[in-house]
Amino acid sequence: MVPTPIGNLLDITYRSIDILKKVDYIITENKKHTSILLNYFFIKNKLLTLNIINEKKKTQDYINILKDGNNLALVSNAGTPVINDPGFLLIKYAYDNNIRVVPLPGSCAAITALSASGLQSNKFCYEGFLSKKKQLCQNQIKKLSEEKRTIILYESPKRLINTIKLIKKIMGKKRKILVAKEITKKWENIQRGAADKILDKISNDDNWKKGEITIIINGIKEKKIQSIPKKIFKIINIIKKETSVSSAIKIVSKIYGYPKNILYNAIINKFKKVD
Ligand code: SAM
């Protein structure tokens, strides 16, 4: 497993270069893409492909090559193979066939962005790309809004503004986020702040319409659930008698600016019963 740079070609380890020179074959997502890296480091080796289209078909062939005693290096277009990249089946089959899997450390956009986030990074969850389907994407963000760990997402520039709008709407306008574009590349741009401020900043800047993007979202703090003033519970209690708990939460959220999910959690914790 050989990680390759996520932009700056110098972000590769000596050991990775050494392995890419020594193995019998390099398995790559895209031959053209990998050739740029190999040429840069004067590496000459034979390339095989593994991508989302041929993964099922090719994996067994590559296991056979390994069983014949060859060494294979797996690389993707950028970063750590298998992290939102092809290769999972190959690794699984390798273990099933008692073939040794050797992971090399190296570039990964998720970890690189997290390391510069200034958000809690001892506990985090990696969610990859959100669904492209509107409703599913909303549901995912709703679920993540209760996550206490720091959240890492990959995002395309096409969906970035919409995703931040959803984060603002569902997680609250004050939720702290970091948006990192083109890390290690010429147009690297990292913005950190409350969701509403980040939305304003990037909506008015055409540079955010292209490039590769990683989003880091602050998790909720336990104490936030506890820190709803008593007055708010009283108001929800009064309104809920006229309508329902969910409508009461919606109204109070609009007036007082507490995110709906935080109010909902607080109510559940307080009354342990919601209609
Ligand atoms: N395997 C890769 C890794 O280890 O990071 C991730 C592959 S995934 C198909 C590609 C996504 O990673 C991009 O769409 C973007 O969300 C994120 N990404 C990759 N390179 C990046 C960079 N230089 N800056 C910010 N995000 C990046």
From TrEMBL:
Biological classification of the source: Bacteria, Pseudomonadati, Pseudomonadota, Gammaproteobacteria, Enterobacterales
Family note: Belongs to the methyltransferase superfamily. RsmI family.
Alphabetized Pfam families for the sequence: TP_methylase
Subcellular localization: Cytoplasm
This protein's UniProt keywords: Cytoplasm, Methyltransferase, rRNA processing, S-adenosyl-L-methionine, Transferase
Designated name of the protein: Ribosomal RNA small subunit methyltransferase I
SUPFAM superfamilies xref list: Tetrapyrrole methylase
EC code(s) of this entry: 2.1.1.198
